[in-house]
Amino acid sequence: MDEGQLLVVDVKEKPYTMAIFEDGKLIKNIDEVWIGRNGVIEPEKAIEGDDKTPLGLYNLGVGFGMHDLDINYPYFKVQDNDYWVDDYKSSHYNYMVRIGEDIHNFGYHYIISENEKDFESAEHLKDYEMQYEYSVFIEFNSDGQIDENGIGNNKGSAIFLHCFGLKGYTGGCVAVSRENMEFIMNFLDRDKHPKILIKR
Description:
Layout: E1 5-10, E2 16-22, E3 25-33, E4 40-41, E5 53-54, E6 56-65, E7 75-77, E8 82-85, E9 96-99, E10 111-114, E11 122-124, E12 134-138, E13 160-163, E14 174-176, H1 178-187, E15 195-199
Parallel strand pairs: 1-15, 4-5, 6-7, 9-10, 13-14
Antiparallel strand pairs: 1-2, 2-3, 6-12, 6-15, 8-9, 8-11, 12-13
């Protein structure tokens, strides 16, 4: 892939790494990347709560975080009423839902506002101020495959590219240092159709 922006995460062996490309040119190497506590998984075998990072090529979706940012990329500042739904029985499975207040969705179908919760469980984004200081949604299972009964496919949700936490691994996301994540937020350009490739 010689055009656009591509982040290549290599999980063949530790230390896991990331190479950042734009229009086929290497822009930056990152020499420490964290993945899911239980390693990686082929996407068709993924299941909610497996703590595994899905292999494959995905679009990078909306950015979000704890700061007001002036960047050339769709981004929202996290509020206390923002939730990323991991309840597969919800019709909003793997959606970002802002409760009781409108939110601009930048054309992404998975960003919505609702007057009240229709889910039993979700990541309350504000609870992850360290990890989600700077974050981007990896569009794995981004439509949740909701069936005619409003039930999601339980294949996994809330897979992000975000900052390191304290544990040395993630719940299935991809994590880099705060400094590298800040670089990525300023690097991303929606017009360049950024993608992430997770491979071994």
